[in-house]
Design brief:
This protein is mostly helical. The chain contains 13 helices and 5 strands. Helix 4 crosses helix 6 and helix 12 packs across helix 13. Bound molecules: zinc ion (ZN).
């Protein structure tokens, strides 16, 4: 193990200990989950990222190194999200990197931990025990091919979508937990605030914090989903678009940013928001001042143009429809329709998952009714 690899692994281990301890002492946990340790694997592919099994959360060594390198390569873009002038960006670049690394690693780890405490692992086991076919084996879905199904034919959209949905739920729960409960030592130091959680950061620090978190989520999902992009484009019959997963995560962030808590579900589980004027103002502020700067930053410093096939090019294409969906307007694109379909499916699956959860979901209830903060 070389020095750099040792440093990177130590960072993961340190963040894991802090997070796992904090999750275990979260008052919203209604059952004690089994113990989990972190381990690194040289065999687990970097494209896979990480996976969780009882009782180990396994991280691909190569993924940890690749992510670390990528953050270094886009540090100018990251510093630009937190500071407006070149001199401030230069002065704080190191602290920005440390904060974004904490958020990014935190997101990957919490995603895995929510597969466990959200009941996904036990749910899969129960289905297997009942002889039901399970797609997306071991979670952290790999694209399934008809070959792997031993000639039983390609998986249906629904069975693949169910597995994919668990990915989205793990993302969304991780994001909510980061915003509401994660001890943000590096981010607080960077933004010079003592506030306990991101929801209570004063402005303009709150804006910067949400941008950095959004960028972290974006960089991780992009890294994990980009490899699937080509295959998925040719099989949208059987697999939701990667862009839908990103937008589902962004949807969680916009709700947290705007503190919209009165989300209701229609009979099929489609999310209905009762939006007040101030909700609309703060959601627009999020779209303009958080999401847009992140999506228009240069995430491909080695390339003179935005690669046309990239996930970010797609994100820009579908961004308008994401806004439609969040603001309760009719959607117009395939991504918008998939978002609606996923919300409904997530609601349906919540009933099946509930007995296995150590933690309440679909939407994590805030610790105490969060005070509405718009500004
Ligand atoms: Zn996963």
């Amino acid at each position: 193990m070389n020095d750099r690899s040792a440093v990177v692994k130590n960072t993961w281990v340190r963040i894991f200990s802090v997070l796992w301890h904090a999750v275990l002492s979260d008052a919203r946990l209604h059952d004690q989950p089994p113990p989990v340790k972190i381990a690194f694997s040289d065999r687990l592919s970097s494209k896979r990222g990480a996976r969780i099994r009882p009782f180990v959360l396994e991280v691909s060594t190569q993924f940890a190194l690749d992510l670390h390198n990528e953050l270094g390569s886009v540090q100018d873009a990251l510093a630009g999200l937190a500071f407006s002038t070149p001199s401030l960006r230069r002065a704080h670049r190191g602290k920005v990197l440390a904060a974004i690394e904490e958020l990014t690693i935190g997101f990957v780890l919490l995603h895995e931990l929510f597969h466990l405490i959200g009941g996904h692992l036990d749910w899969y086991d129960a289905r297997r025990a009942n002889g039901l076919k399970v797609d997306g084996q071991q979670l952290c879905l790999q694209l399934t091919s008809s070959k792997r199904h031993g000639g039983q034919g390609a998986p249906t959209y629904r069975s693949t979508a169910d597995a994919y949905l668990l990915e989205c739920e793990a993302d969304c729960s991780a994001i909510q937990w980061i915003v509401q409960a994660m001890p943000q030592s590096k981010l607080r130091r960077l933004l010079q605030t003592q506030a306990a959680s991101m929801t209570s950061f004063p402005q303009p620090q709150r804006l910067a914090a949400f941008r950095l978190l959004l960028a972290s989520v974006w960089l991780v999902i992009r890294r994990l989903e980009s490899g699937k992009e080509k295959l998925v484009r040719n099989s949208s019959e059987t697999h939701p678009l990667p862009v839908t997963r990103v937008f589902a995560g962004f949807g969680t962030l916009i709700r947290e940013y705007s503190c919209i808590s009165d989300l209701r579900y229609d009979a099929q589980g489609g999310g209905q928001r009762t939006l007040t004027n101030s909700d609309v103002i703060s959601m627009r502020e999020f779209l303009e001042r958080v999401l847009k700067p992140v999506l228009t930053s240069d995430w491909n410093p080695g390339s003179p143009h935005l690669p046309a096939e990239s996930l970010e090019a797609q994100m820009r294409f579908y961004l308008h429809d994401f806004g439609n969906h969040m603001l309760n307007r009719p959607v117009q694109t395939i991504a918008g329709h998939e978002l609606l379909r996923m919300e409904r499916a997530r609601f349906r699956m919540d009933r099946g998952l509930r007995p296995f959860r150590y933690y309440q979901a679909v939407e994590l209830k805030r610790m105490k009714a969060a005070r509405k903060q718009v500004g």
